[in-house]
Hints:
Blueprint lengths: L1 E6 L6 H12 L10 E8 L8 E9 L2 E9 L2 H34 L6
Parallel strand pairs: 1-2
Antiparallel strand pairs: 2-3, 3-4
Amino acid sequence: MKINVQSIHFDADRNLLDYIETKIAKLDHYFDQIIQGDIYLKVAPSETNENKQVEIKLALPGKDLFCSEIALSFEAATDLAMDCIKMQIHKHKERVKKHASNHKQLLYPEDTL
């Protein structure tokens, strides 16, 4: 999987980039067909301290997954976004399995075997 991390209107330090890259790289354990991951780091205008925004976009075969989270720090926002993306990957895998099982039933009906 190719990982691109972009910090918009600021320079992210190496520790933050390494943290995000290791978190995103772990997604291969959940779904091995991820083509690319784009992560955008922004400081959102806000009246509160919760202004660190992380957006994750994953390219899968035939579908893109997207999640955006805001928190007090980029690390916390990354963790929240990772939970959201993991849930979306799980739902996507279930849809793919259901479609494949329906396709097998159409090709090989049980009463002809």
